[in-house]
Structures are given as C-alpha cells and as structure tokens.
Write a structure and sequence with these properties.
The chain has 219 residues and is of the alpha+beta class. It has two domains: 101 residues, Orthogonal Bundle (434 Repressor (Amino-terminal Domain)); 112 residues, no CATH class. It contains eight helices and eleven strands. The strands form four sheets. The protein has a five-stranded antiparallel β-sheet with strand order 5-8-9-10-11. It has a two-stranded antiparallel ribbon with strand order 1-2. A hairpin with a 7-residue loop joins strand 10 and strand 11. The radius of gyration is 22 Å and the shape is elongated.
Length: 219
C-alpha cells in the first residue's frame, strides 16, 4: 500500500479525525489532508511521531519499501519483532531480542559499552575491518562493514588437513562478522568473524555447504 492509504487506514482505526490527528503530531489539518491525498509525505520528525502514535514502524508508514533486517543477529524484522527505544520509538536496526529499551541485550555489546560506549566500539569495528583488509586474501573483496552475529549463527564444521572435523564458535557468544561474495564470481562466498582475540576467514557455498577454513589468526 502507498503511504496515503496507510495513514488514512491507521487514522480511522484509531478513531481520529484529520484535525485530531493533526493536533497529536503538531501539524495542520491541511497537512494531514495532503498526506492522505498523496500530495506529500510527512517529514522525518513527524514520521517518528506517527510511528509512536500508531505503534508501527516508519518503514510500515512508508509502505515497507525496504526489507528490515536486524544488524545484530540478521533476522528479518516486522512491526512485531522490531526493537524500541525507552521512549517507545521504533529502532528499525535491531530486533527486540538483541536491543531493548535503549540497551543491547547481547553480552558482546554490553562488554564494549562498558569500555567506552558506542563511539569506542565503532572505532574497534573499524580497526577489525582494517585488519581483515590487510590480509589480502585472494578473491575476497574489501571489507566495508561488520555486523554482530551469535556463534550459533555463523558456526560451521570444517575438515582439517588431518581429516578431523572441528567446529569454531560453537558457543553462545557473539562476534563481529559478515558474508562477502567472491570477486571471481561463482557460488562460493567468504564468511568472516572476529572478536578481541582472533580473526577467522572461511569460504562456503549456498546455505553454508562445503565450508573451508581459510585462516584462523590470533590478534
């Protein structure tokens, strides 16, 4: 649906007139009328107010133009699973299990919050990105971003040269990681993971099939 239809339906569901809605989000009745005709859409700050009033995400108000995915665990988000800030505003970057009431719930995030807050954590992520790029692994593209992933999400079983199969990250901890396409094309892609102690690079096919451990390096 288009934003004009969504706003109209949400307003009616709430039992509000255009004038009453306008009062609640600090705009004129004419502004609401223009939204519902499709002439304009609310600005960012007004969308936040509408999101809180109707208890839906901004993405929903705009007609769901993008697929929302938790930047922490990677799960697909909708209005029932998206996290919220303390003031009730949706945080559309995370699910409600990874982030709740203004705080990250996963131990990995809490650890870094304690040693300097989000700014220091972002600096640490950038440092890890630079360390991955300095490896110059053949076929692996430049690393530009990292997400927080639980060990169970990225854990794979690898066969070592001696024929023994082993699992890495088979625990409840969380790690910085990402999936990267091979620059040479084909079905294989790279998986990377790191924490304060190590860097791990592997490759695998669709759905993690036929994994190969490329590098495990202590930091």
């Amino acid at each position: 649906m288009e934003p004009k239809t969504i706003i109209h339906e949400l307003r009616n569901k709430k039992g509000l007139s255009q004038e009453e809605l306008a009062e609640k989000v600090f705009v004129t009745r004419q502004a609401v009328s223009r939204w519902e005709r499709g002439d304009t859409i609310p600005n960012t700050e007004t969308l936040k107010l509408l999101s809180r009033l109707f208890d839906v995400s901004i993405n929903t108000l705009l007609g769901s133009p993008r697929q929302m995915i938790c930047h922490c665990c990677g799960m697909t988000l909708d209005d029932s699973t998206t996290s919220k800030e303390i003031d009730g505003v949706f945080n559309e970057d995370y699910c409600k299990w990874c982030y709740n009431d203004g705080e990250f719930t996963m131990d990995f995030w809490k650890r870094y919050a304690q040693i300097g807050g989000e700014e220091k954590f972002e600096a640490f992520k950038q440092q890890i990105i630079e360390e991955f790029n300095a490896l110059h692994i053949d076929g692996m593209p430049e690393v530009k971003s990292l997400h927080i992933l639980p060990g169970s999400f990225i854990n794979l079983e690898y066969t070592l040269p001696n024929g023994v199969s082993v699992k890495f990250l088979d625990d409840p901890s969380t790690y910085l990681g990402n999936q990267l396409p091979c620059i040479f094309g084909g079905e294989r892609c790279f998986g990377i993971a790191a924490n304060m102690d190590f860097l791990l690079v592997c490759s695998y096919e669709k759905n993690g099939e036929n994994p190969e451990l490329i590098l495990y390096k202590k930091r």
